[in-house]
Prior knowledge:
- It contains three helices and no strands.
- The chain has helices at about 10-15, 20-35, 40-70.
- α2 (about 20-35) packs antiparallel against α3.
Amino acid sequence: MATQDRQPTQKDDESLDFASAMTQLESLVERLESGELTLEESLKAFEQGVALTRDAQKRLDEAELKVRSLTENADGGMQLSPFDIGEEPGER
């Protein structure tokens, strides 16, 4: 099967938001799992997947740093508390 999707360049990867990067990564995984790609296409898709994964991890790391900086106390101290998605504040 010939590659139908436009292959993103490194410059394109930099302009993707996190959700778009994840959508592209999911698409690459589906194409790889289909078994219809040639070896060369599979290697190219794998390389793109690695680049997208690294970009997504970098974005997550940056978001964590931003959240940490936003939770600093007025005196510059850090108040770290666990982030539980299903728990409302004060429900312990």
